[in-house]
Amino acid sequence: MTTADVATFPKIRVEEIWFTRCSVPTASGLAIRHGWFEDEFRPDGIAVRSIRGASDKNVRESHFTHSLANSFRQGGSIPALYARSQGQDISLIGLQALQSYRSIIALPGSGIRKLDDLRGRRIGVANWALNKIDYWRASTLESVDGLLAEGGLRRTDVELVDVPVATSYVGDPDHSKNTPRLNRLHTPELLALLRGEVDAIVAHGANGIALREQFSAAEVIGRHFSEPLTLVVSTPLLRSRPDIVVRYVERIVRAARWGNANPEEAKRIFAAEMGTAEYWYDEAAESRSQSLDLSLEENLVADLKRRQTFLLENGFIPFDIDIDAWIDREPLQQALARAG
């Protein structure tokens, strides 16, 4: 975004902006909980609205497709990569490193205790076929590959079993709420495990650890994955009102600093957003010395490129994206300068 770019577009009046974020530790989550976005834009008469809290399903779906104008999204990179690959006019303006815990669990009595025991066994993978981008399936398959590799195994050494899901991520407003959502996403695979239709499933984060303990399941293998979270914005808003975008990003920068300086208070907010107890949050090490800061450092960009390659090779996105051309560094640079 250059000065010339901005001059090309008229400075439009904006009456509302939309936000959304995933149920993972982000500075956006802190800013939303504290009402800092509303504080920033209320004097301008700009309403700040939640995409996931909307009653309209088409609006809620923008959490995954980024089809809504004047919107920001911070969270998992899979929907952002999908939206961009579908031609959505969005700009990548920030990345955040997340250390996310994944494990493979099996029920007691299954005889599965170590990775080699998984040879020839069935691992359940939910298939949310009604969604335009099945990010849960993508994340699960990515985890399967990484976890099996710890013991020198590949997908061909196990049997992947589809677990059909007859609903969508945004089927109703209650399903889109933060608190129960991560638990509900485990439900199809968990039920398949309890019914004996599969031998093991992937457990995601603190919610997965809570399920492991609830059912006395064996953790076959578990580790942290480095995952790049993306902050994206509608490009027309960025071009016509870069001032709004910079102010929004500045609030995220300040929220990140608050969270880094107040880890216990931030943990309580994140655990509530994820619908889990702080105890499980700690065990999953969701907060383990990781920064909430936004960045566009090359190591994070490289992580995003690797994830894009995985999505492309596994059929989740149709086209390769020029990640470097997608990035606009100016909003974050200006926000950091404003925040001091």
Automatic annotation (TrEMBL):
SUPFAM superfamilies membership: Periplasmic binding protein-like II (SSF53850)
Annotated signal peptide: none
One Pfam family in the UniProt entry: NMT1
Domain SsuA/THI5-like positions: 30-164
Gene3D superfamilies with a match to the protein in the record: 3.40.190.270, Periplasmic binding protein-like II
Stretches that traverse the bilayer: none
PANTHER family in alphabetical order: ALIPHATIC SULFONATES-BINDING PROTEIN-RELATED
Protein name: ABC-type nitrate/sulfonate/bicarbonate transport system substrate-binding protein
Species name: Methylovirgula ligni
